[in-house]
Automatic annotation (TrEMBL):
Chief subcellular location: virion
Coiled-coil features, chain-numbered ranges: none
Name this polypeptide is given: Phage major capsid protein
Ranges for domain Phage capsid-like C-terminal: 130-412
Pfam families with a match to the protein in the record: Phage_capsid
Taxonomic source organism: Rhizobium deserti
UniProt subcellular location: Virion
TM region positions: none
Amino acid sequence: MKHIAPGAFALARPRAILTMPRADVSNPAAMLAEIKSAFEEFKTANEQNLKGKADVIVAEKVDRINAALSTMEGNFQKAVDDLNAKVAAAGTGNIIGDIPGDPEYTAAFKAHMRKGDVSAAMTKGTAEDGGYLAPVEWDRTITGRLKRISAIRANARVQSITGAGFKKLFTDRAVGSGWVGETASRPATSTPQFGQLDFIPGEIYANPAISQQMLDDAAIDLEVWLSDEVDTEFSRQEGIAFVGGDGVNKPNGILTYVTGAANAAKHPWGAIQVQNSGAAAGVTLDAMIDLIASLPEELSQNAKFFMNRLSVASYRKIKDSNGNYIWQPSPAVGQPSTLFEAPIVQVPDMPVVAAGNIAALYGDMEATYLVVDRVGIRVLRDPYTNKPFVHFYTTKRVGGGVYNPEPMRALKISV
């Protein structure tokens, strides 16, 4: 093997990245080809490392390619999402979702944003407390973007409500039975009991301020600008809460329902079962196989892996008993990479692979986690509190919690 001076290699990049033209972020197909090429080089270098034929230089190369692959995957997914958004915007014109735009209402809303003027058309969105709901098409736009950005929301069950909360009854399944003879007595058996789970929305808010002169003079679309700012922040806050929220004025995060966590005893059907990784600070093949096998077949039809993007590098090095890598790059544009042929969903707020962390979830998120939306996003224009700035007090009420713990498993980094 040809050795390279450490100083020279420090600036080196994987050959697949050096020899191939940098993929245009507007061309997902080219980006996918680059990912696949880099993965082939990763496998070659990693094989040398596993067979003990490598030195420090090759080991470092493996880590560099692995890190580069993780970055490329993130860029690839962002490019696909951005293109989908552009196609959707170009194709809908003045229609958002399945609801035609209302020019009169939109014009009134823009007037309200700029100067606080209210026309009769604005009464369509007047709340009982005097606040103003955003136009239906603006509300739908934010909802769509939240779904694209928040991986948990995009994969979970979403329930819209019109009241203060949502209640769900569960039976403990404790029905008794027994075998009897033809004339034997039939004493009473145990009867199932019911339990109740409450899903109470918390409130998330934003209160951006714009000077009155900027509102008077701006030539931009205020709806689009403000909704962009709000939905990005709302999605960030939702993503954090759906994973680890403590339920205080916010959703109960899914990780709080795993065995040993704060809500382990909350659900009548128990906690989300935990599988140890088999290593103090890493993941073993046997643990991954046990994790998948622990999920009953009837619950695994829509199973996916949910993990932090940075954690994928740890799974990429694992091979099965036939020497095949269990991680595979995206087979086509619009499809995710896989582990054991199960799709990988990148969740930024999931913990990374480190001792004691829940570094992956495996299962059917739609059957497991419930997101509760209190219908509507409310915008209250406040030109008085902080003159000469106008504040746009924007609120959304959302809750969440585990609907059924049985279709989900958690991988804990532990021996």
